[in-house]
Amino acid sequence: MPDFSSLLHGPGTWALFFFCAMLIGMSKTGVQNIGTVTIPLFALLFGAKHSTGIVLPMLCMADLLAVIYYRKKFHRGLVIKPMPWALMGLVVALILGDRVPESSFKIMMGGCILLGVVTMVGMNRSENLDKIRASRWFAPLIGFVLGFSTMIGNAAGPILTVYLLAMRLPKFAFVATGAWFIMILNYLKIPLQIFVWDNVSWAGFLLSLTALPFILLGGFIGIKIVHLLPERQFKLLMIVLTVVSTLFLLI
After folding, report:
1. Does the predicted TM-score (pTM) go above 0.90?
2. What letter does residue 6 receive in the DSSP assignment?
């Protein structure tokens, strides 16, 4: 059996790892974008590119939890429309990510998140939201950036939030639709990261399994928060957390 314990050193790193797992659970079941905070933390623990392979099984477990809980509330059409473009972005990121050094990979991760933040703030202030949403370029652009950013650094949260905010979905449909979209992409990424990037290992998978109780705990907390938190504060929290995590990653 692979020695997954060697991937982390000391109680402090284990505590940080489990804390991040809890945040992933929360992000999938309600507090979207809080999971973005974990991206620079995982990069600190494992390295930017290697961390995406360790985190991917955790994301897949959390995705499944969210999809099961919100299974009757998602909007199928909003998942299907940008999906072809997301797959295209995923392939482009797969090619680029296999050719760039670790330092450039980290910058690309931060750039994807920052683009999502800027777009999200701009959409919040736009008086022409309906016009933007109906435009021909919106779904293809959003889809491509979603696929690219989720492949580069599991960093699709801000872009996905932009898309779902533009659709003006009710709160639970917002969470459910996002969970389905990202789950499809994450499960498609598994063979790509195993056979192309070679950054998903048995040791990393076993390490992810140790985080399952904390993912479930975070999922429970996320469900409670999405029921309790008012819409306005919900949006503000997502934006603030995303900005902070982006700045941390780019330092």
Report:
1. no
2. G
